[in-house]
Amino acid sequence: MPSSIDSGVSESPIEPSIDTMLPTFRYMVHRKLRRKAHGQYRKHSTRRYIFSAIVIGLFLTLIGIGAQKFELAKTWPQLALIVVLLLAMIYIVVKVSIVIRWCFYWLVLATLVLFVLDKGSLFDKIRFGQVPDPSDDTILKAKIVLIILALLEGLTLSVVFLLRVAYPRIILRAKWLNCRRWWRIKETPKPLSISVNYRTIMFSYLSWDPDEYRLQRSSVSYVGEFDELGKPHGLGEWTDHTFTGEALQGIWEHGVPVGPFKSQEYGTGNAFSNIRIGFCKNTTDKNTSTTFNSARDPRGVSYGAASVECSISGKFFHHLPYVRIMGDAILRSDLEKKAKDDAAAPAVVLTYPLSFLSTFAESLQSRPSIRGSFRGVSSPRSAPLSKSVVIRYTDRGISIPGYIRSRRKTDLNSVTVRRVCPPNLGLEGQPLAVIDSRESRGGGSSPLGQRPTLVLPSGVEATSSASVTSDDSDNAAGKRHVLLDGSGESDDRDHRRSLDREKRRRMSQVGLVVEGWRHVLDVDGRVSSAMSVSRAGYEALVFVHGYNCPLTYGIARLGQLLSLGEFPPYIKPFVFSWPSSVTMGYFKAKSVGCSDDVAKDLQQFIADLREAGYQRVHVLAHSMGARIVLSALRKGYLDGVLAEREVVDAESSLASAVGSHAGLRSRRTLRYRDSMPGHCNRSSSIRSLGAQESAGRIQLASFTLLNPDADLDIFLEEDYWTLSKYCPHITLYADAHDGALFWSEVLGQKKSLGRHPRTLIYAPTGEVLDVDVIDTTSLDVNIHSIRHNFFNLNRMLVDDLYDVVVLGRRANEREGRLSSRWTFSPDGTENGEVYTFLCAPSYVVNK
C-alpha cells in the first residue's frame, strides 16, 4: 500500500471534499502513468528485428569498429570473444530500440549521415590495412556524428527515465508536491448529475491530450461511499474524462481500488477486470518466486486470498495480470483454533479466505444503485440480474446454481425463466407497453390474471407473472411481492408512488429472472452462509498449477481465464499452490509434489471445501499439477473425501477385490448411472461401495487435464479407473507439438499424456476410455513457441472451458466449436473420436 494512502481512522468523521480526494486522485494518475510506462503488448515482427540488426551492423561497419577489432585479433579465442561482444552489443541495442523507438530513429539518422560523409572511403582504408590519417576530415566528421548521437541517445534515455520511472513515483509518494497547483485543480460547484444515494465529488484539472498535443481541462468525478477520513471506501465509481483516464466501478479501500471492479479507459476502450481468488498454500517459498530446494511447509497448509487485475479488451498491458495479496496466508491450524474459539457463531476453517471471495456482482448487492441513482429517486436495492441461468437435474428436483427457492410452494420439477427488457425495446425489438391494472379492471377479463407482468412487447399476450423480487434476504423474498395492479391493503398516494419507483427500477434492469427463486451471493464462511452455499449450489473451481510456478503466477493465470470467460458468480475460484521448484529442478518438483505429505494437504483442502458448504468441485490441473492430483487419487487419499458415482452394473467380484489390482480390473466393466441415457430411473440401480456414506462428501463434477505432464501408460492402467470412480466428466487437452512435454518425455523416457492427442484405449480389453480428448495442435492464436501454457488466453479454449465447467457439456454437445475425427486401430477399425477446434489458422486471410 502506498505510503501516501493510509488506512487510519479518525475519531470524528471528515467531510468528503477535494482535499480528501487528492490521495486517490494521485493514485489514479499513477495507474494511468504505470500503464504508459510498462507499455502494451505488440505483435512480434521478425522483419523488424532483422531490419534493426542490419542497420546496427551497417552502423558498426561504417564507424570501422568491426574491421579494426578483427585486425587486432591474433588468436581464435580473441576472435571468438570479439564476435560474442559484437553480438551482445547488437542484441542489447535491438532490444532497447524496439522498446524506445526514438533510440532507433537516432541510430538510423546517424547511419544515413555517415553514409553521406564516408562515401565508402573509410571502409576501403580499413579493409586494405591502411592506417587512417588522424587529420582526415571524414574521420573527424564521423567522430562528431558519434558524439552527437551519444548525446541524443543519452538525452532520450534520460527523458524516458524521468517520464516513465521517476515522475510516476513522484506523483504517488512525494509529499512536497502541491497537487492543486501542479494540476490547476478547480472545484465544480454544480455537478451535472448528483446522486441521491451517495455523495458526489467532482472537480477539473489540467491534463495533456495526446491526440491534439496540447493541455486541456478535464473533469473527474467520484460517486460512492467514503470512510471516516473522507476517502473512497466501499462501493464507488470513478470517472476521469481524459483520453487515457478510467471509468472504474467497484470496491475501494481507504482511497485505493482493491476490487472486485471493472474499468475501462475513457478514450481508448481498453478494458480491465479485477476479481478475487482464494488460495491454499503448503510451500515455504515466497509468494512471488520459487527456489530449487522447494519444500513442503512442515506446519501444514495455509489459506489466503488475492485480487488479480487483468486486461480483457482492447490493448493488453505488460504489467497485467497484476496480483495483490489481500489476505496473507494464515496457517490452517491457527484458523481451526480460531474457528473453535468463536463463541458468537460457529465458524468453519475457510472463514478467512471466503470472507474475501466476493465478485463484482456481489459487490453491488444490498447497496443502492450507482448508475441508476441520478433520477431523482433512490432505489432500495440493486441486486443485479443474471445474464445466463444454468439449470441442472438432481435426484431432489431441479437445481439452479447461485439461486435458492424463495417460495416454499415452488415446483421442484419446473422452472419459469423470464427476460427483463430495457425500457425502450421488447423481446423482438418492439416498443414496450406497460399494462395498467385499471384498464384490466375496467375492461373485464385480462389474460394476465391478478398479477400482470411489468413490461411486455406491444401486441404480444402476457402469460407470465411479475411477482418475483431480487432481494437478497430470506424474509424479504417472502414479504415483498410487488403487485403492479395497485391492489393491496391501501390505495393511498404514497403506496402508488412506491410502486412507481419499483416499476422504474425494474424497467432499468436487463437480464433474466427465475420465478420463485432468488440469488444467494453472500459468503462469509459461517455456518449460516455455509448452509446458503449448499442450498444455492455454489461450486468450487480448484486450479492446480504446474512446476516452476510461484503462487502469484498461478493466481494470475487463473484470473485471466475467469476474466476473459466471464464465469458466473457462483463459481468460487481457488489455487492449490504446492512446492514446484525452478526450471532446473524438474525431478525435485516431481518427487516433492507426488509425496504423501502433499497428497494429504490436497485431501485436507478438499475436505475443508466440503465443510464450508460446497457440494461440487471442478479441478483444472495443468502440466505437472495433473500428476500431483492423479498421484493423490491413485494412492487413495481422496477416497474418504470425494463422493463415488452410482453404479448400475458391476461384476460380483467387485466387493471382494477392493484395493487390489484385480479390483481395478473389475471396475473396468462398471457402468455408471450418470453416464447412461434415462438415468433418472432408479428402479434397477445398484449402488457402489460406500454410496450410503457419500452424502457427506463432495462431488467431483469435472476434471480437466490441461497439457498434463503425466505418464500415459500409468493413466491408462490405473489413473483413469480411479478417477472415473468419482468424476463423470473427464476432459483432456493435448498438443502434439508441446515443447515442454517433449523434454519431459526425453528426461523421463516415458510417453506423456498431454502430448498424444488420440483416443485413449485400454489395450488388454480394447475398451475406449470415457475421456473427451481435445486436440489443440491446430490452434495458433495467443500461443507461445513452446505451446504449453495458453489455456487462459486463447479465446476458443477459454469458451470451451466455460462450457465444461459451467454448463457441463461433453465434447459431442459442443458441435458449434468442435469437430470430431475418427481414429483407427492397427487393424483398420474405428476405435474412437478426437475433437479439434473449428477455426482457421491465423495466417489465412481473405484475398
From TrEMBL:
InterPro entries xrefs: AB_hydrolase_fold, DUF900_hydrolase
Entries under Gene3D superfamilies matching the protein: alpha/beta hydrolase
Domain of life: Eukaryota
Keywords, comma-separated and alphabetical: Membrane, Transmembrane, Transmembrane helix
Transmembrane residue ranges: 49-67, 79-98, 104-123, 144-167
Biased composition (Basic and acidic residues): 490-502
Segments of this protein annotated with the region Disordered: 437-504
Protein name: Uncharacterized protein
